[in-house]
Every structure is written in C-alpha cells, then in structure tokens.
Amino acid sequence: MTSENEYLKKIVEINKAILETEKDNSSFKITKVTGNRAEKTIAITFLVEAKDENKKMTIEDISIADIEGKEYEIDFYKSSRPYPELDLNTPIKLTFSFKNIENQPLFIKLFRFKITSQPIRNLFEDTKSNLEFKDLKVNWN
User: Fold this and answer.
1) Cβ of 115: how many Cβ atoms within 10 Å?
2) How many domains does the chain have?
3) Is the Cβ–Cβ distance between 48 and 117 less than 8 Å?
4) Who has the most CB within 10 Å: 1, 35, 42, 107?
5) Which residues are registered as beta bridge partners of 31?
6) Structural domain that includes position 85
7) The pTM is what?
8) What is the pLDDT of residues 80-90, one digit of tens each?
9) pLDDT 10s digits, 107-137
10) Which residues pair with 50 in a beta bridge?
C-alpha cells in the first residue's frame, strides 16, 4: 500500500499545475517550462482535459514572446501533434517546443494559441477560443 501511495504522490507532483485555465469546458494546466541552453529551445508541457464530453481539438497559431517582446515560433518537428482527441475527464499531455531562443530568458511573458473544439457526437458544432498564459518561469538546463 505504501508504494502505491508514493506513486500517487509522485503523479500529483508531476502533474501539478504552474498555471491553469478553463475554456469551453476544457481545462489547460501548464506543468513544465524547460529551456535547453545547448539547443536554444524552450519546451512548454501542459495537460488538456475535456470536462463535458469527448471532443476533437485543433490547436493553432501557437507562439511565445519573451520579456523583450521577441516572438518565437513553434518547432512542429519537436512538438506534440496539435490535434488531440479528448476523452471525457482524461488528461492528455502535450509539449510544444520553440526554437532559436535568444539570451535564455528567465520568463516567458506570453504563451498563446487558438483552439477549435468539436464534440465527437457532432463534428459540425464547433467552438473557437483564444488562450493566453502570462509570466511563465523558465527552468534552464
């Protein structure tokens, strides 16, 4: 029983949200922001979870900006697919990577993207939203 409790504590710690928001009955929890000095990249890991029903989602126009206002584009080759299929109350982990990062910023001033959600039961019904997360601390390694 003890090892099971330890395991559950670790899972809670790993999935602990740095920033969290809810839009269109889906929750978005940022769990990790990691910079890689050698590769000059920043990766943002987050969990997305449908709170109302099973749905398909499209995530687009994904970008970050540093505190100096420099905007960085996503590196699709090193990122998760931006088309998650969500099952009700089941978190899906996504990681988006950004390249050519200059000066190893300590914070991401803005991480933003657009989402389109479609319920599996009716793919013609869709909701569009813009999401923004501000002031994310970057852990460099």
Assistant:
1) 22
2) 1
3) no
4) 42
5) none
6) 2-140
7) 0.88
8) 999 999 999 99
9) 999 999 999 999 999 989 999 999 999 999 9
10) 26, 88
